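Sanity check

After download, print the first record. It should look like this:
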Amino acid sequence: MTTISLKIPDELVSRMDAMAKAKHTSRSALLREALEEKLKAASRKALQSLFEQSADLCGMGSSGMGDLASNPKHLDGFGS
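Expected structure tokens:
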């Protein structure tokens, strides 16, 4: 196994130590687990289609008008 050295802010180390203690594990095991989860999530996101990645945005601009794109009366004054 490769050893990696990195600098971590003190506040983050305190939180990490508290979590490691609560889970009865070591810092190293906790960091490996967190890194594995992050990499898996990034990999899953990379494999998603554009629609899947933006599905939560669908309907954000909902006006409640079903004919907004086809009814000229909704464009009265637009661009004036």
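If your output differs, re-run the checksum step. Summary of this record's structure: The chain is about 50% helix and 0% strand.
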